[in-house]
Amino acid sequence: MELKRQNEYDSNNLVYILKEVSELALLPLSEKEKKYAQKRLEDKSELISINRMDGWIFLVAPKRDKGEEVFFEQCRKKGSELAILASGEKLEELGISGTETQAVLAVAEGVALSAYRFLNHFTDKKGKETSLQSLSLIAENLNDADVTELANLVKSVYKTRDLVNEPLSHMNAERLAASFQEMGNEAGITVDILHKQKIESLKMGGLLAVNKGSVDPPTLTIMEWKPENLVNEKPIVLVGKGVVYDTGGMSLKPTPNSMDYMKSDMAGGAAVGGAIYAAALNRLPLHIIALVPATDNRPDGNAYVPGDVITMYSGKTVEVLNTDAEGRLLLADALSYAKKFEPELVIDAATLTGSAAVALGQYGVAGMGTAKAEVFQELQKAGHEVYERVVEFPFWDEYGELLKSDIADLKNLGPREAGMITAGKFLENFVDYPWIHLDIAGAAFLMQPDSYRGKGATGTGVRLLYRFLKNMVD
């Protein structure tokens, strides 16, 4: 999808974002078209289509009664509706205009994200591709940098969705690492891939335990963006769970239909890779490091089993009660490894627990950790701005007591109640720096379409983390 800034209209298919009804008088519409639009607006229509035979006019009038953040989300959703209409009419380009620059960008974002298709494995793509190829953005205060930034962010979400949508047959741990290498080469990110021998020498017992049942070796990908003129003295470290497929291991998942989308269990890893990719493409003056420990989790004859005790990279011992609580094991090793970078802040993202999905559904991200309240507030602010909203859950010491083991330093599973919090408390044992844990399990992969988030991989986390990082600079 090409996005470009225009000073004037060069499209037969035009979108006008209305701030007030009176703006109808200023638009190049016939009197008949104005009367039609006026009537539809009086009927509270938020998207009006006018077929001119040689092109289309679309008028967008999102509701403004619930605050700025909701308004911009409505703009994105109207953009998604526009994408559907445009594709249905086989339109190849749209011109998007309005007096409010941010509204124009939000509508364009909704259109562009809705144009995503994952068609890698169709032999015949005819009828499945979107017809839309380009968007022209027109607004008085819009500049090329705004459009480039949005285009790079959309591209990063696309890349992330592609990684998550790829099945294990095409995306094991080594291929995931290779994909990050390709992204790094393009964006100027330094990428270092640790393979099994190096991971063994580091004694990353959590990652190695989960990998024991796999025929494919694990990887730990380290991505670093460190441009000149940095605004942070210590790096921001992003850590993402990279379980490229999860059977549950020897604690096999109970039903087949709970496994068909388990290719998405690396969505956290893909998200942090996508976020640092977006930051690099847009040249954010921040020192950022992304860590993605990756493996699949399978019940082979040599797989780790419930009752095992493993020694983690940090030296702590963990009693394994359930091999389907595997993500926290490899995340814990990566979080311990992050200490070597002396980070200002570490944020991890993971499809870690079903409890998060039960609590928030697809509409939010569960957050918790040890960072100061001000940092959480900034992350939540970014979440509301992009509508990947973060709900902070309590992180009381009592939840940590539930992870005490009779035979090791701690166990990898607490009771059913507050499962997302005890998972976070497990990870807390491996950090000694400001840290936020994000459980994106409910929002990362959808079984039914949801506006511009689509169906399948949503790319949740990329826009959230990028906006948080950008706000640190602004």
TrEMBL record:
One of its GO terms (cellular component) is cytoplasm. Mn(2+) 2 binds at K241, D246, D265, E326. SUPFAM superfamilies: Zn-dependent exopeptidases. Binds 2 manganese ions per subunit. It is found in: Cytoplasm. Keywords: Aminopeptidase, Cytoplasm, Hydrolase, Manganese, Metal-binding, Protease. The keyword Lyase does not apply. Pfam families: Peptidase_M17. Mn(2+) 1 binds at D246, D324, E326. The active site is at K253, R328. Its EC number is 3.4.11.1, 3.4.11.10. GO terms for biological process: proteolysis. InterPro entries: Leucine_aapep/pepB, Macro_dom-like, Peptidase_M17_C, Peptidase_M17_leu_NH2_pept. It catalyses: Release of an N-terminal amino acid, preferentially leucine, but not glutamic or aspartic acids; Release of an N-terminal amino acid, Xaa-|-Yaa-, in which Xaa is preferably Leu, but may be other amino acids including Pro although not Arg or Lys, and Yaa may be Pro. Amino acid amides and methyl esters are also readily hydrolyzed, but rates on arylamides are exceedingly low. Its cofactor is Mn(2+). GO terms for molecular function: manganese ion binding; metalloaminopeptidase activity. Residues 322-329 form the Cytosol aminopeptidase domain. HAMAP family: Cytosol_peptidase_M17 (MF_00181). Presumably involved in the processing and regular turnover of intracellular proteins. Catalyzes the removal of unsubstituted N-terminal amino acids from various peptides. PANTHER family: CYTOSOL AMINOPEPTIDASE, LEUCINE AMINOPEPTIDASE-RELATED. Belongs to the peptidase M17 family. This is Probable cytosol aminopeptidase.
